[in-house]
Amino acid sequence: MRKVLLGLGLGLVLGSASWGSAVTLTVDCGAGTGFDLCKAGVNRWAKQTGNSAKFFESPNNSGDHLGVIQQQLAAKSSDIDVYLLDIVWPGLLVNQLVDLKTKVPAAEVNRHFKGIVDANTVDGKLVSLPWFTDAGLLYYRTDLLKKYGYSAPPKTWAELMTMAQKVQAGERGANPQFAGYVWQGRNYEGLTCDALEWVSSFGGGTIVDASGKVTINNPKAAAALDMAAGWINTISPKGVTTYGEEEARGIFQSGNALFMRNWPYAWANGQSDDSKVKGKIAVAPLPAGPGGKPAAALGGWNMGVNLYSKNQDAAISLIRYMTGPAEQKIRAIEGSYNPTIQTLYRDPAILKANPFFGSLYSVFTSAVARPSGPTKAKYNQVSQAFANSVTDVLTGKAKGQAAVAKLSTDLARIKGRSW
């Protein structure tokens, strides 16, 4: 399969090595389950171009990952040529990454979803190219829903609570560790994503709106946070406030949970040969709050070139290949990573490997963006303040209304006269 895929568009991306003699690029390939897939893709490019590559395995926590990048760029280090960038980082790093606008053909850029390209564009500069997109999803055990008389996954949070309580009570006789619902409750960027979904699904806005106005202090946002706090020690383990994506996945994949909130990558892992839930899981949109509609946080990662790299031309060639159709197809099939290229959602091989890509297409194309656009370089402070406030509610230190009122004041102080 790979030999066929590598023929897709490589002539445009690779051509002859216009940067002269062979070089060795150092590439940030992230961490966790995606590291090996990234490494394999980079090595395919290196083999085609006669270059070589070394790899940087970043911290698994996205906040720590950002910290490493900021530290290196502040020192004008050329040690890493290509960085992986979360969808909310372009505004933070715009002045230290190569502007790709005149270096990548417009037709190549335009095959990606416009909203994701827009998120990678800051002050007219194309900071990075879309690599894969993400949106929060609800995973569930099909066998257990059927066992307890349910014909479909929950459409509302109230339904999820009812189902989770019933199934958890029934399963704990044989498995005392069984949980109704696992999610990302640790105080980090993942909690910002989960909590944004709760708030948005209640009709409580997006923390800061597109105009830059702080909107979090409202009753619907407060009610959403109180709801989530009510899950702890009922349908979710007390330890959920220490979970990231992998902790939640580990519990669900070992057969110890009914529902899980996670990103699309968890599908391929859940269907692997060593998964105890292989063939017993499905995916649906996250539930809606009272009078609201389902909301999925927009995630995804992108590739940018270090402004201080000594191998910029080769690095640009690499990211054009890695974000192109050949590599995105491989990653979708082998790792359930959502393409950012629209036409790949009609690819039969991709849809066979990931049946939900087609049925949940609208979830990915209408996902709710975190407020990194309006808050620009201050987004990291906004996200941390939000996650801190949510943590206070989840751990019982504050009720929802008090938390969002204090957060609104904190965000006004962070904003100052402008973002």
TrEMBL record:
Protein's UniProt keywords contain Oxidoreductase: no
InterPro entries associated with the record: Bact_solute-bd_prot1, SBP
Record keywords: Signal, Transport
Pfam families in alphabetical order: SBP_bac_1
Stretch forming the signal peptide: 1-22
Keyword Transport: yes
PANTHER family, per database record: ABC TRANSPORTER PERIPLASMIC-BINDING PROTEIN YCJN-RELATED, ARABINOSE-BINDING PROTEIN-RELATED
Family, per entry: Belongs to the bacterial solute-binding protein 1 family.
Protein name: ABC transporter substrate-binding protein
Gene source species: Deinococcus petrolearius
